[in-house]
Structures are given as structure tokens and as C-alpha cells.
Amino acid sequence: MKKNILLLLILFCFSILLAQNNKTVTCVYKVYTPFDLKKTEVSNVSESIAKTKPLSFVLAICNNTSKFSLIDNMELDDVDMLSLRFRKILSFDGKYIETSLNDDEIFERNESLGANLAIKTKISDYKWNITTESKMIDNYYCLKATCQIKGRGRGGAVIDKEITAYFCPALNYQFGPREFCGLPGLILEVVVDNSVIGIESISFNNLSSKDACVQEDRKNLNIFNSYIDYSMQVHGKGE
Description:
- The chain is an alpha+beta fold.
- It has one domain (25-235): outer membrane lipoprotein receptor (LolB), chain A (Clam), CATH 2.50.20.
- 19% of the residues lie in helices and 39% in strands.
- A twelve-stranded mixed sheet has the order 7-8-9-10-11-1-2-3-4-5-6-12.
- A hairpin with a 2-residue loop joins β10 and β11 (195-206).
- The longest helix is centred in the N-terminal third of the chain and has 20 residues, at 2-21.
- 27% of the residues are buried.
């Protein structure tokens, strides 16, 4: 009888562990460009972008991996493709990002890189400085963190970019929008390139699809190990 009870307890604990491992966290973010934030002068470009709505991205977190991608549900009625293209360029060209804590890896693709090009960098390259500054975001207590990263400027040149992120220590997930991760809590807001990536919703569900965090097929891709490597080989420009 005792053996049966012990076996049932073991099976119960195993089922709880399995259920936890099959959990996924789904976060939806919106990207607000400088034009949305009224940080630029009115121009033909700003008026064109005003015809479209801020783009939404989804972050799917499964155990120690995540996938960040554009939600392709833009209403195309009465929206010209040039306006949409301007919007996508300012929304990081529809970045597609995979991250893996176990592999210390960030895998990135976007339209500006080209169809067969990708960049693979390390999570540990992000040297975050966590401050005591805080604010509430959708009733979540968040701390401010900053870091500098290598990014692409005009003409593909590599430049330093200042990143500001607000993360929630109570949400124990080391992920966030785009390639930003590695902080001790889920990132709810990022300020980069005069744009704001803000959280819209968070849901905690059972894994609804086995493909939620499955890696994209990387066959036939030319993968660079840094922005510097990419810029030197593709644009002939470095630091």
C-alpha cells in the first residue's frame, strides 16, 4: 500500500514537472516609431506612416528558448504599400529573432539583411547595467536597465546604440522583445533608435502548438557572427 502511494506521489510530481515544461508564455508588443511619438517634424514620410497603425510582434517563450516575430495582420484596406514599407523599416524591418539561454545564442533575420542572410550573436555580449530607477507598466513593477550594443547605421556602417529596457523581476523569464534578453525578469518595454517597444498583453498557457518555439530552418543561410562581420563582408564597412 505504501509503495502504491509513493508511486502515485512520484507520478503526480512528474506530471506537474511535465506540465510546467510544456508551458509557454506569449507576449504581444507594439512598436511605436518616432513619428508615432511626435519626435520628428511633420513631413511627407510622417504623413505617409500616419496612414498605418503601429506593428505588433509576438514573443513566444518555451522553457529556455524564445521566438520573436511580426504578427502579419496589417489591415491593407486603403493603405498603400509604400506607407506600409516605411512603417516596417522603422519597426526594425520586421525582425525575426530566436534566442536560446542554453546555447547563449541570438539568431536574427530581417528583410534588410536579405533572404539568405542571418546574424548570430551571443546573449552574454549584452552587458546590462541595472539601475535603481523604476516605474509601473500595466501594474507590473519594473526596473530600468541600460546597455550599449553594436548596430547598423546609415549605409550599413557599424555604430554604438544605447538601449534602455524596463524589466519585471516578478516575471521570472530572461527574455524580451527583439534580441534583448538576459535580464533577471521579463522585459516589458525597450527604448531604442528613438522608438519604443511596449508590452500589450501577456498570457500564460499550455503549449498550443508544437511549433511555437521550434527553430527556423537554417539550411542554405549565410550566417555572420557579428554586425561587424556582416558589414565588412556585405557593405565593406566596419568600425
